[in-house]
Predict the structure.
Amino acid sequence: MSPLDILLWGVLPYVVALVLIAGLVWRYRYDQFGWTTRSSQLYESRLLRIASPVFHFGLLVVLAGHLMGLLIPKDLTDRFVSQETYHLVALTAGTVAGVATLAGIALLIYRRRTTGPVFLATTRNDKLMYVILTAAIVFGLVATLTGGQTPTGEEHNYRETVSVWFRSLLVLQPDVAAMAAATWQFKVHILVGLALFALVPFSRLVHAFTVPLHYLFRPYVVYRSRDPLPPAPSHGRVRGWDPVGTRDRDRKPR
Ligand code: HEM
């Protein structure tokens, strides 16, 4: 276990957790109006209607898979299903969900690049976020599809390394050796994932922490047509602001 291992797997995750939590509190207190997806639906909705659900539902399944794979100890699942069955199900579901997520983000980026107004509304911060988000998904898929293979070609069981480390973080007893034993595919994936978590409070990704629940309970917005205009007054002036006298025809007769 090298000092770099201690830094990456023993210290960095907590620094990122601190940046994430303190950053979200800071953003909520000082930039509530900026707490938004900055939706671009108004500019383009045909592609968005397909790409957005494919990406978001794909990601939800990926998230559910992460929670299962990382939180449920292998000893427990071994009692109910064999390692082979578990692996087959995780591999199939993970690949389908991961590919859907990747296809969704690819389509979202294509739309953003090719729809003029959407591209104009894209900041440098957005571009950085897209690069890191896509990299996290790509390296996740690399880890899944290669089975995190070791240099000698053996498949690596992440539930004996990554998952053990992940749970050890939650009880504040980081098992650095467990994570140091994982293969590069998982290490790269997790480092990119941590970078993404650190970026969340400072990007559009904050929207993931908001559900517009008040929409369900707020009063209706009532739209009414205007009252018909009253007849023009006899003095000939039209309804509205008094003219300020900057144009000849606005000047009142003396
Ligand atoms: C530090 C946090 C993370 C850890 C510990 C982690 C761990 C893992 C592991 C162990 C796998 C392999 C699962 C398998 O082969 O069955 C995986 C796959 C994957 N990860 Fe992550 N991951 C993290 C963050 C992220 C983030 C932030 C994203 C994307 C936003 C992401 C997207 C993916 C995808 C798309 C796959 C492939 C599909 C799948 O197997 O679910 N991961 N991750």
The chain has one domain: 3-213. The first helix runs from residue 3 to 30.
